[in-house]
Write a structure and sequence with these properties.
- The protein contains 5 helices and 3 strands.
- By secondary structure, it is mainly alpha-helical.
- It has a 3-stranded antiparallel beta sheet with strand order 1-3-2.
- It is elongated, with a radius of gyration of 19 Å.
């Protein structure tokens, strides 16, 4: 997670409030662009949610009801992409008639185990954590 995104996340963990981009810029003493891009990223990951108020045109952000499932799902996606890259490398080597290095099998097993463990952990988290019930995020995402 980028440093500014981590700062936004930490702020919202310790202060259960809603913030505008201007609030975050002032509190974190950083640029509007940095705050904007990092809140967008956190919103896309399901960590933050946008709040629209009828009395204001400014969007406000708050910590999502279950920000952790979004983080878990993002990690799973990156691991699955890395495992797919290993599979592509293996296929390319085979197409070229080159021998496969044993480490390719090793890293594939590593990703397989890591992905399965995270999927199981996320499923347990969502089953045992009441706030995870309505996120719509599943281990397969």
């Amino acid at each position: 997670m980028p440093r500014i995104a981590g700062m936004i996340f930490a702020l919202m963990l310790v202060r259960d409030e809603e913030y505008t981009l201007a609030d975050l810029k002032r509190l974190l003493q950083t640029s509007h662009g940095s705050v904007s891009s990092n809140t967008r990223m956190l919103e896309d990951k399901g960590v933050l949610e946008r709040v629209v108020r009828l009395d204001s045109r400014r969007a406000r952000f708050r910590l999502a009801r279950d920000p952790y499932s979004g983080l878990w799902a993002g990690r799973l996606q990156r691991l699955q992409e890395a495992r797919a890259a290993v599979a592509e490398a293996r296929a390319a080597l085979l197409d070229e008639g080159r021998p496969l290095h044993p480490r390719l099998d090793e890293i594939d097993r590593f990703y397989d185990i890591y992905i399965r463990m995270l999927e199981q952990s996320l499923a347990i988290w969502q089953r045992l954590t009441p706030m995870a019930d309505d996120t719509g995020l599943l281990a397969s995402q």
